[in-house]
Design brief:
The complex is a heterodimer of chains A (627) and B (105). Chain A is α/β, with parallel strands linked by helices and 627 residues long. Chain A contains 18 helices and 27 strands. The longest helix of chain A has 21 residues, at 237-257. Chain A is globular, with a radius of gyration of 28 Å. In chain B, 56% of the residues lie in helices and 2% in strands. Chain B has three helices and one strand, in the order ααβα. Chain B has helices spanning 11-41, 44-54, 81-97, and one strand at 77-78. The termini of chain B are far apart. The chains are: A alpha/beta (627), B mainly alpha (105).
């Protein structure tokens, strides 16, 4: 049967209830206050033994939009929902809802429906779920064939507005699931192979097999009192869960394992607060999602140039699984992602070295080790040219990094300065390359203390030989000049960093050289206008169209503690131009805001981690094809 | 029959009140000298804190926002962005409310 067009299509909201009337009452009370248009609410009473039947009957007598289907006994989550689907109007869409939800968005259904009908092949749509304490509970699900244990994306992160764009996901939890008539017609209701648990992932996978995508509608957030609906139930949930897991494993393990097209040994670091580690985490996650099966091994440790053991827990389920995967005896391809003086550790049959540096060339030892690779990857043409200038003869591929646009986007929650000051933000590790002296002095000179403007510097220093306080004192900043505040040696959870950027008006980085510059990219993804030096790898994503490029007076020898820079040059940012740009942005805020918006769009369109991983996947395909 | 003087015109009361005013003026002068001494030796930010305490307002947590108050360390501290920013923004209030600005950048 062909389903009617969306505008004419019946829509039934199925609320499955079993005892716990207080939850059902709260759910229905909040639900019926939202905009439901012509949708009907069908409460399936799953054999409740408390006051639920009587209360529902009384409510249905008062509320014409509500119907009740009473089942004589509790038939479980799957059969209870299927009973509701069976009595919903044929050819209509349905939304499955748990009775422990609370609706706080009036237009939640309008948004969910629009998302469901945003493309013809969308079959299942879920939404963001938050806990009553405000933390995020769910923004989609995934399951790995290694463990067959479903995971909720974003679970227990502080909700700062992450995952608010609509996006395709592998699965959703069926606490709220919009099922289009087309998918119901194609695959029917929930599989009765399951009584409870895993039926939702199973349904999404079956829908995918039938040609329907599952989507997460980021514009809808419902409060979910998780497991509230089963409070007081004496059922053996652990037994039910394990039974469903065994059933699901039998049904899907091989199919899930078969989605991996390539195996890859990734030798790097992931559990340290460094640029390589942070980007390594993102790449591994994105590669795994895209059908490249990475096996991770720590690149450093005792006996290496970085003789520190890596903490075992990545605080990320997928990364912990990737880390625990057994090492193939002779991996077909291995990538060492780190400084090139560790390339010799590469254990693959086909060896790839992936590195970056912030100056205009590479140390001789790096070039020697790079020459023993089958190919070398760098994130930028800036670094490719540096290797070529340093005499490397191996094939070099530019493999740009990316940015997490789920957590870094313009709609992330801001905590703006209540005094209304215009806030410049800079994030850096104190040291020669980031040139904080230039930034602090120039800002201090560019503004006066009575102007409503402030520079906030998030500074990290792990070098016991560096006394940041003393270095700032030595600058003799003018008390009558631009005001500066500091966030010193604070480590913020990654998922909250977008809030830091969004709480500022402009990002500024006056560094001498960059191998990529993740903070700059994150700030731009958040929609901040950014001032950045016109020299280094970041100029490949930060152009004059979407950022403010700080002129350099040329290049100068890279004098720094870092031994890798010796003999090479980096940029020499022009203080006068920095002063000009700071004032220009401050005085042309609308223009700056527009440029920030363009930057956010550009980052989301072209510079995501998914795209970065996609390029790696393509390259692995080419390597495999070449034999 | 003449009226007896009101308590306010009673010479003994007037003398007592004049003595009281004299004592208060002396106390005020002494307190002013003390405050001038304090102002010479205590930094402006501490004065702002003293002013907030006397006004019954909360004392801002300043340690991470003002270089002068840092405990120089290479240890990092886990923090919540919202809390850190509230602390930062809160720390600006006393500085902005003083007559001639805060203790500088």
């Amino acid at each position: 049967m062909t389903a009617p067009p969306p505008a004419d299509r019946p829509l039934t909201l199925i609320v499955l209830a079993w005892n716990c009337w207080h939850l059902t009452a709260r759910c229905l009370d909040s639900l019926l206050r939202t905009r439901l248009d012509a949708a009907r609410v069908l409460v399936v009473d799953n054999g409740s033994r408390d006051e639920t039947p009587a209360e529902l009957a009384a409510l249905a007598a008062r509320e014409s939009r509500l119907q009740v289907l009473t089942l004589p006994d509790n038939v479980g989550f799957v059969r209870g929902n299927n009973a509701g689907i069976a009595v919903a109007p044929a050819g209509g869409d349905v939304v499955l809802l748990n009775n422990d939800l609370v609706f706080t968005q009036t237009d939640w259904l309008t948004r969910l429906r629009a998302s469901a009908h945003g493309a013809p092949d969308v079959g299942v749509v879920g939404c963001r779920l938050a806990l009553p304490d405000g933390s995020l509970l769910h923004a989609g699900t995934y399951i790995l064939p290694d463990t067959m244990w479903g995971q909720q994306i974003g679970a227990l992160e502080k909700d700062v507005g992450q995952y608010t764009a609509d996006r395709e996901v592998e699965g959703i939890v069926f606490a709220c699931a919009y099922l289009r008539a087309e998918v119901l017609a194609a695959i029917g209701g929930l599989s009765t192979d399951f009584q409870s648990y895993f039926e939702d992932t199973d349904y999404c996978l079956r829908a995918r097999d039938a040609g329907f995508r599952t989507r997460l509608c980021g514009g809808v957030t419902l409060v979910h009192d998780e497991h509230g609906s089963t409070q007081g139930d004496g059922a053996d949930f652990s037994g039910l869960f394990q039974q469903s897991r065994r059933t699901f494993t039998r049904k899907w393990r091989h199919r899930l394992a078969a989605r991996y097209r390539h195996e890859l040994l990734w030798q790097s670091l992931i559990n340290f607060p460094t640029g390589y580690a942070m980007s390594s985490r993102e790449l591994l996650r994105a590669l795994d999602e895209q059908g490249v099966k990475p096996v991770y091994r720590y690149l450093y440790g005792p006996g290496t140039v970085f003789p520190v053991s890596e903490p075992e827990n990545s605080r990320d389920y997928r990364l912990n699984v990737i880390r625990a995967r057994p090492l193939p005896r002779r991996p077909p391809v291995a990538v060492v992602y780190g400084q090139a003086d560790a390339f010799h550790s590469n254990r693959g049959r086909y060896k790839v070295g992936y590195t970056m540096l912030e100056v205009d060339g590479f140390p001789p030892d790096w070039v020697r080790q790079a020459a023993r690779m089958d190919e070398v990857w760098v994130p930028s043409a800036f670094n490719r040219d540096g290797f070529l200038r340093s005499g490397l003869k191996r094939p070099i591929h530019v493999m740009p990094l990316g940015v997490d646009t789920h957590h870094f986007h313009p709609a992330v929650t801001a905590h703006p300065n209540p005094l209304g000051e215009y806030v410049f933000l800079s994030i850096f590790e104190w040291g020669e390359r980031k040139d904080p002296w230039l930034l602090l002095q120039t800002f201090n000179q560019a503004f006066s203390a009575d102007e409503p403007v402030r520079l906030v510097c998030k500074i990290m220093n792990r070098d016991p030989m560096v006394r940041v306080k003393e270095e700032i004192r030595r600058l003799r900043l003018d008390p009558a000049g631009g005001r500066i505040s500091y966030l010193f040696n604070l480590e913020f959870p990654h998922e909250q960093l977008g809030s830091l950027y969004r709480s500022a008006d402009c990002f500024v980085a006056a560094s001498r050289g960059e191998g990529w510059d993740m903070p700059l990219m994150e700030a731009m993804a958040c929609g901040l206008p950014a001032i950045a030096t016109d020299w280094g790898a970041h100029t490949e994503f930060a152009s004059e169209r979407i950022a403010y490029l700080l002129r350099v007076r040329g290049t100068v020898p890279a004098v720094a503690k870092c031994p890798y820079y010796a003999g090479y040059c980096w940029g020499d940012p022009d203080p006068e131009h920095l002063r000009h740009l700071l004032r220009h942005v401050y005085e042309h805020r609308d223009e700056a805001r527009d440029r920030g918006s363009l930057a956010a769009h550009e980052m989301a369109e072209h510079w995501t981690w998914q795209q970065a991983a996609g390029r790696i996947g393509d390259r692995l395909q080419a390597i495999q094809a070449a034999g | 029959m003449g009226e007896s003087p009101s308590p306010a015109e009673d010479p003994a009361t007037v003398a007592r009140l004049e003595a009281r005013v004299e004592a208060l003026e002396a106390a005020l002068a002494r307190r002013s000298r003390e405050l001038r001494t304090i102002v010479r030796h205590v930094c402006r930010r501490d004065l702002a804190i003293i002013a907030r305490v006397q006004a019954g307002l909360a004392i801002p947590a300043l340690a991470s926002c003002d270089a002068e108050l840092w405990n120089e360390t290479t240890e990092t501290t886990s923090a919540d962005v919202e809390e850190a920013l509230q602390t930062l923004w809160h720390s600006l209030v006393p500085a902005e409310t003083t007559d001639d600005g805060d203790s500088g950048p």
